[in-house]
Amino acid sequence: MTAGRTQRLLDLFEKCLDLERFADPDPFKGPVASVKERLRVATTIRRDTIEAHEEAWRRAVESIADESVCPAYRGLRIEPQIGLVPLGRDPRSGLWEFAHIETGTPPERGADGALAPAEEMGFVFVLLPGGAFKMGARKPAQGERDGDDNIDAAALDDEMPVHEVTLAPFFLSKYEMTQAQWLRVAGSNPSNVPAGALYGETRITPLHPVDSVTWDAAREILNRLGLELPTEAQWEYAARGGTATPWWTGREKETLAGAANLCDTATRRVLPPELRQPYEAWLDDGYPATAPVGSYRPNPFGLHDVAGNTWEWCLDRYGSYKAPVARETGERLVLEAQDR
Questions:
Q1: Are 336 and 299 in contact (CB under 8 A)?
Q2: N or C: which end of the chain has fewer CB within 10 A?
Q3: Structural domain count, the chain
């Protein structure tokens, strides 16, 4: 789009805003305020994320492309991404991380190089290398060891058959979306237990993950930011973190201690008898509900809470694993679908 056409569109938006300025008595609320903010971002985002961080982007592009420095990317050369600011490599995974400035401020790294989540933090995206991986799970045949090569005694029928999917490199959020981030973007907080409320003796904070979000609402808010939900293949690839065991932590569920927030004795203590459900009696992680994002150790890709805490939405509709997938994204191609 030429600069002239862009300016004409901006002028048109301004005229529309002038005509609708009485739509809401509060100038900071409602759809008009949202359009104004998006207009402001559209006019400044290249300057704020590319031009203002030109040297940081140069270093990031060269580092990612250098196989001796970042072998996981296999020589990948990316272009500077409008809306993102390089944060450097994660000290454990070696993968590059980026701040999404439209959703908040870039987080700081501590003395150990790890990021420190904060209420005002925007999304943090990890550039994942992609490639081929085995998706799904299957029950062990006679003589096979549970836990190896996508073998899981608890595998469900709709996790079969195990099949290979090849993904292009993609960005995925390092953390679950926080209540603070959703509130900044959407203007409201749908969470069942919102920030400030008590759940048992635990005070919910803005850094707790947002919950009770519908698939449609998730897509609407992400699309507003120029983002999208991951496909199921992308999510499983990311959650596995290069492993082939039932959990990225190992073969046994007990390996999840310190890596995932589960329904455990901490939860059971605060639930009335009529709401109690199966729980992990061997674990007490101290959180009866969700935990603030980043509370537990990350997986090999540097991603937090890929098991436990809250469930995640995926882009795909429900479909058989025998159905083909789209190139690069792994989206399941099904003709008739139900919500998964």
A1: no
A2: N
A3: 1
Pairing label, strands 170-173, 124-128: antiparallel
Residue 96's contacts (CB-CB under 8 Å, 6 or more residues apart) are: 60, 63, 64, 70, 86, 87, 88, 89, 90, 126, 127
Write down the pLDDT at residue 148. 74
Bridge pairing between strands 96-100 and 124-128:
antiparallel
Q: Is residue 315 domain-resident? A: yes
pLDDT confidence tier of residue 270, bands split at 50, 70 and 90: confident
Task: Tell me which H or E stretch contains 133.
Answer: strand 131-135
Confirm if 178 and 206 have CB atoms less than 8 A apart.
Answer: yes
Q: How would you write 47-78 as a 3-class SS string?
A: HHHCHHHHHHHHHHHHHHHCCCCCHHHCCCCC
285/151 Cα distance (integer angstroms): 27
The whole-angstrom separation of Cα 73 and Cα 95 is 9
- Nearest-Å Rg of the Cα atoms of the chain is 22
What is the sign, positive or negative, of the torsion defined by CA atoms of 330, 336, 339, 340? negative
Query: How do residues 4-41 score in pLDDT, each as one tens digit?
Result: 555 565 555 555 555 444 455 444 455 555 666 666 67
**Looking at the domain assignment, is residue 279 inside a domain?**
yes
- CATH number reported for the structural domain that contains residue 322 in this entry: 3.90.1580.10
